[in-house]
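User: Predict the complex.
Assistant: Input components as received:
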Amino acid sequence: MVSTQHIDEPINAVPLLEARGITKIFGTLKANDNVDFAIQKSEIHALLGENGAGKSTLVKILFGSLQQNEGVVLWNGETVSVRSPSEARDLGIGMVFQHFSLFEALTVAENIALSFDANTPLDNIATRTRDLSQQYGLPLDPDAVVGDLSVGERQRVEIIRCLMQDPQLIILDEPTSVLTPQEADTLFETLFRLRDEGRSILYISHRLEEVQRLCSAATIMRHGKVVDACDPRQETAGSLASKMVGAEIDEVVHRESAATDKVVLQLNGLNMPSTHPFAVALKDINLTVNAGEVVGIAGIAGNGQGELFGAISGEDVSTNANAVVIDGHAVGLKNISERRKIGGAFVPEERLGHGAVPALALSDNMYLARHASDSGDFQSGGSLKVIAKNAIKNATKRVVEAMDVRKSAENPPAAALSGGNLQKFVVGRELDRKPVFLLVNQPTWGVDAGAAAHIRQALIDLAASGSAVLMISQDLDEIFEVADRIAVMADGRLSQPEPTARMSRERVGLLMSGAAENGEAA
Amino acid sequence: MRLELQKRAGASTLFSILSPFIALVLTLVAGAIMFVILGKPPLASLYTYFVEPLSDPWAREQILVKATPLTLIAVGLAVCFRSGNWNIGAEGQYLIGGMFGAMIPVLFNDWNSPIVLPLILIMGMLGGALYGLIPAFLKSRFGTNEILTSLMLVYVAQQFVDWIVRGPWRNPQGMGFPGTKKFNESAILPSLWQHADAHYGAVIALVAAIGVWFMLAKTTKGFEVTVLGQSPRAGRFAGFSVKNMTIFAFLFSGAMAGLAGISEVSGSVEKLDDKLSLGYGFTAIIVAFLGRLNPLGIVAAALVLALSYIGGEAAQISLGVSDRAARVFQGLLLFFVLACDTLIHYRVRLLRTPKKLSGKTHQPHSPSQVDTAKAKVWNQVGHGN
């Protein structure tokens, strides 16, 4: 079934797939802004960019899960419209997702059979699975139950399922994020073999050294636009990183710092083992944040930022009381409510489902984060803890006015607010408490420019009023605009923060790519 | 043509009120069809089931008697289900509660004191709670599926109670029949009025329903239940513990089921025998959902389900329909209640389907051949979004 007909194409022929002027708008957000992109036959092409840069949107359009507002897609030089993933597959585009969709109770062959006609015999599929897995060096037993397989083996199932369709273009989304280095090496050999057969591979990854090893072309996206196209083999990890985060953009002029020498947050050798296969372990993190300053933590997504948030907020409790010290209290063993009571305030990355319950009213979501810290105002009836609904409604009103939260009803469910307005509410809910320490993860993620400016200003004002602010963000512009000092997270480790004035984007990019581990102590 | 469900922007208030009633109507329609198939006059049969008992004072009292344990159990289950824990084993907790409560009157048959009654009610709650703790512990400690463990423990409880009333606790003067000695006066829940079958358990059930409504609607504990049931991650952010909630939900619903068990034993049977397990613990699941997991709605739902029990007995006599028919009604009702809840979050629309392509052999390269079935499977597998 695997043909080698397209191996002798001339080098500068028509691209296998070309996207011209793709624009995709979600509400007020341009997720893709006039994106041009082309992948040649027999090429491994990297798609690079920060979280929220628009990579996923572009890939979803190419794979038919989303429809573009403007622009055309060309396949072998002909305009095509890809209206669904199954049309994409019929065209010859296959995709292997980062998170697998396999039934653990079924066998490998049964899982693969699910994406075929009901009348394709299972034996047939098992045989082809065995053949393909041998052919591509991805050993796999078709009769094994998926629940018994390792993460790497499960990925093989996804890859074989994709190869069954004989695709000419294979899209891989962060394929090595779940693999051991040895498994990754096996995967790379398979990818080279596929390329040598004339297939093309679109490779999405944050791991720059992998991209340099594998890919002969790269398209770099930032804020929904294509900012560069280059040959990653001609670049260094540092130069790729700075292209991703946009070193060529003018530096923001920094304001006067209000930092004092009173330590508010202290992390002392904070360690956290990873709790599931997709989690990152935190390794010996040391940090101090003083009253009056904003410390920014930069880093590429998935390097332990979410885990750090959990450890500092108390959603995940440490085994060492002194690992987290807030305002002089050793709270490493305390839960999030206890940490709030001594002045801690927390804004998680995800608004819906983490920072707020989607179906509950705003006032209930006010209570969600403040029932322990504001028990005096928000509760009555002693140990019955009767909810004082009026007091909560008043506080909700106060936050809505202070943050200019626009809503359609008096007290709508959180899910009815736009992302930006809900984010303003979730941040405002904490600011209203005048916290001693605020930890915020991705304060303006997916938020329109107006709301983002409002939130950033609020963070700066909070610090100026004498609180300590720790901001985790993947948006370097934001970090340079808001933070007094900048630290970088890579692979569960945190670099020592340095004053923003002394930090350059190049240096942040280097730290992001993990250069700090290789010898640099700073 | 095909039916398609479209997600509404928000939950529909209209349908959240209407849906139990639509479910009731659909149950009656399906019931009428069932009677036609059985060769019985459908309207007369429905009348026997659902109207006749209401006109008879004795039957009305029996409805009250049956609604009592249903309300008590369902109110506990409402807390449990709202918190996202699925206790299917209330029947077992009900039995063990009855047995625990019977311990004092059985072992100290001569003890006459006003504190005996409150004590045995507390013992009943304790027994149910402890029995509910088993699946809760297994879930929070080992991640076992509480639906399976709680259900299987029902059968354990049934066998255990059956053994104890035939063996160690059997009344020596009972002519060999399974069952303990009759309780003495101070261990019996008094009747509501003279010679009535209805007992003060009904009052306890009503008070419990109001109390649990207050807890769910007004207190922080109720808020915790709602938040953890809807979004465990946001619950963690709020400082609530999923594991502690599992323990609490099972202890609470177990205690309520245990209270139902002991009030049935002490109020209706006045001894522990082998006929305590009547399926109230399972019917209460239907009651809880029909009452929209709202304790006050549950009181009404319990009366409806109790009516189906009494109507079933009447129909058995006057129509010659098996008493299983009442169970069929209850099953239909649960099915339709859950199905109608779809209307709260979805709009049903009739769509014209494009003509299906008759692709016999699979040709992955032909772009024109969009195999809808395949796309559907693919979407189910999770790739679609």
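The first strand of chain A starts at residue 17 and ends at 26.
Let me know if you want any component modeled separately.
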